[in-house]
Amino acid sequence: MSPASDQSPVSELHFETRDLLFEQLCLTVVDQLNQAIRQRGSASLIVSGGSTPKPLFALLAQSELDWAKVTVTLADERWVDEDDPASNAKLVRENLLVGHAAAASFLSLKTPESTPEQGEKTLSDRLAVLVEPLDVVLLGMGGDGHTASLFPKGDQLARALSGTGGTRCCAMRAPGAAQPRMTLSAPFLLHARQVVILCTGEDKRRVFEEARAGGPVEDLPIRAFLQQTPTPVAFYWAP
Length: 239
Ligand SMILES: O=C1O[C@H](COP(=O)(O)O)[C@@H](O)[C@H](O)[C@H]1O
Description:
The protein has an 8-stranded mixed β-sheet with strand order 1-2-11-10-7-3-4-6, sandwiched between helices. A 3-stranded antiparallel β-sheet has the order 5-9-8. Strand 1 and strand 2 form a beta hairpin. The longest helix is centred in the N-terminal third of the chain and has 23 residues. It has a single domain, classed as Rossmann fold (3-Layer(aba) Sandwich). It has 8 helices and 11 strands. It is an alpha/beta fold. Pfam families: Glucosamine_iso. Pathway: Carbohydrate degradation; pentose phosphate pathway; D-ribulose 5-phosphate from D-glucose 6-phosphate (oxidative stage): step 2/3. It is an enzyme of class 3 (hydrolase). Hydrolysis of 6-phosphogluconolactone to 6-phosphogluconate.
């Protein structure tokens, strides 16, 4: 592991292998959730979907923790049925909410309504049960610099980035997203004790470096988490 130190709220932790990364990140997340439970009696864990976090979910699921005091939700969801292979909830239910972690509560980001726009109000109310600041927010990043479902050229990107009106979540449609989405807003995700950006592979490292160098948030929305000061952000990366 090679931590880089500077004055920014963004720290970088680079690992030689993915196994080492996932082991260390699992320990860190469990430690942070335990601290929250000790301090507040409960903890929140916001996770991302996609392919990258699957091995981490397997390790977390086997970790001993008072999972009954943990509420898990997603940073974003594809607007598909929960048995659809593209569903982030399916990924979480099958890989994280098993073993010890089966005792955790899960807030889905999907409603029976046919569009995410119709589901937004219901979901915003559902998310209001989460105590702020959130405890651990685990983000991923796509090769286009999207995180959660904050996509470049997303139809609601400006609203999701600004969180106008206290928006906790936002419907999103974007050229780079195969399905309509629901995403947590950037201000809601950033109102957290710890944000982690989990990435693997050289391509994503290059995108992250480009984002960190500065530029418009709309072009690489991951920048919303790098161009801010109050929230600690840790970038976990392995080849
Ligand atoms: O569509 C999504 O993509 C990102 C990145 O996914 P990955 O497969 O490249 O790991 C993910 O963080 C997000 O939650 C997901 O909905």
